[in-house]
Design brief:
The structure is a homodimer of 221-residue chains.
Chain A (H helix, E strand, L loop, with lengths): L6 E4 L4 H13 L4 E7 L6 H13 L3 E5 L2 H5 L25 H16 L3 E3 L15 H15 L4 E3 L7 H10 L24 H13 L11
Parallel strand pairs in A: 1-2, 1-4, 2-3, 4-5
Helix pairs in contact in A: 1-6, 6-7
Chain lengths: 221, 221
């Protein structure tokens, strides 16, 4: 490529996208931007934490308002529906079509800003039944977006095949473990984190396997 | 399929999507809904006409507000940039990533309403350089959406390989030519239509080839 490459990170303020941000900065130093989508998630604290981390990482950061999802869908992340996961069903936290919308918006911003690389923290290993976190979906989305816009955007998913523990070790290698104290994971929207919801339990399990101490504060762990 | 099939039409109030609406009603009588996306197009008259036609067709109709596109992109349909098309470049009316966003939103609505069939009026024949009107894009989008949501949505594009003249003949066969008097085509947003912009000229050329009279009112033709 003749032009200097730039990267855009889909950034939520969670542990995974924060690790992606560190990876993108490692791959494209000084050429990274971050974008978050405000889709009406119950816990606006996520976006507040995203802002804190972007500042720490010294990357331009924008929040795109996208209220549509909470208008047309019903799920635990955008409405007050109990979190549950029945055998053989998609979990109630599934927002259908969400990741493609996010990638599509990231690709539009990338198109306008002449950015070729998009990073997203989706992960097949711990995907909990979300079909739009799988590698075959991402490959298909990359092709579809490039056909739509006659571009050659590359979607990077550095966490795709990592366990939570391996993600933490990656972050340690990238030298940014301290950023984790600002990330938000808790489904109950608590800071200090509740330590008892499925998201907190998964996170704590990952740290336990690595024998690294989670810099985040918890109520119980 | 055990359940009765339903169809959702991506509907703009233009000639093509109105033809799609008629086709969908022919294929799935009494089981059709229509949705329009308000993405900040310069001519809100399109949506007003869409409402008139949906009422005539007796189909439920909803408008989804989606201001994002006009925030993040610059083009002739959403900003006051002169309409032009330089050789070897995408036309200035191209809204990058638009059709995938529309299909994605239609697929989310379809998911929530248990609708399997989506109709869109995209057309490769007259595509004027829009990559996201081509058949290979639609096939790829269908696959990506189904991977994202674990669905079996079918995207119908009855106009894909038709010329403007053939689209008009299709509408004649469907017995709904009179709906065309309410459709909106003019890039200058005029009713009566200006008759001189590229969109009006293309439309009039189509009618001329069929020897059918366009029921729409024009200033000049």
């Amino acid at each position: 490529m003749s032009k200097k490459s730039k990267a855009l990170v889909l950034f939520s303020g969670g542990q995974d996208s924060t690790t992606c941000l560190a990876q993108a900065l490692h791959d494209f130093p000084g050429e990274v931007e971050a974008v978050a989508i405000n889709y009406g998630q119950r816990h606006q604290i996520e976006l507040k934490q995203a802002q804190i981390i972007a500042k720490l990482a010294k990357v331009p950061f924008q929040i795109i308002d996208f209220p549509l999802l909470s208008q047309v869908t019903k799920n635990s992340l955008t409405h007050h529906i109990p979190i549950e996961h029945k055998e053989g069903q998609l979990p109630s936290t599934f927002v259908p079509g969400r990741n493609l919308l996010f990638l599509n918006m990231a690709a539009i911003i990338a198109y306008e800003k002449n950015i070729r690389h998009i990073y997203t923290g989706v992960c097949q290993t711990d995907y909990s039944g979300y079909p739009d976190c799988r590698d075959n979906f991402i490959k298909s989305a990359e092709q579809t977006l490039n056909l739509a816009m006659e571009t050659q955007v590359e979607i990077h998913t550095p966490l795709m095949f990592l366990t939570k523990a391996e993600t933490i070790l990656l972050m340690q290698n990238l030298g940014k473990l301290d950023w984790y104290q600002h990330t938000h994971t808790c489904y109950n929207g608590k800071r200090p984190a509740c330590g008892t919801c499925p998201a907190c339990i998964l996170r704590l399990k990952g740290f336990k396997e690595t024998e690294i101490i989670d810099p985040l504060d918890y109520e119980v762990q």
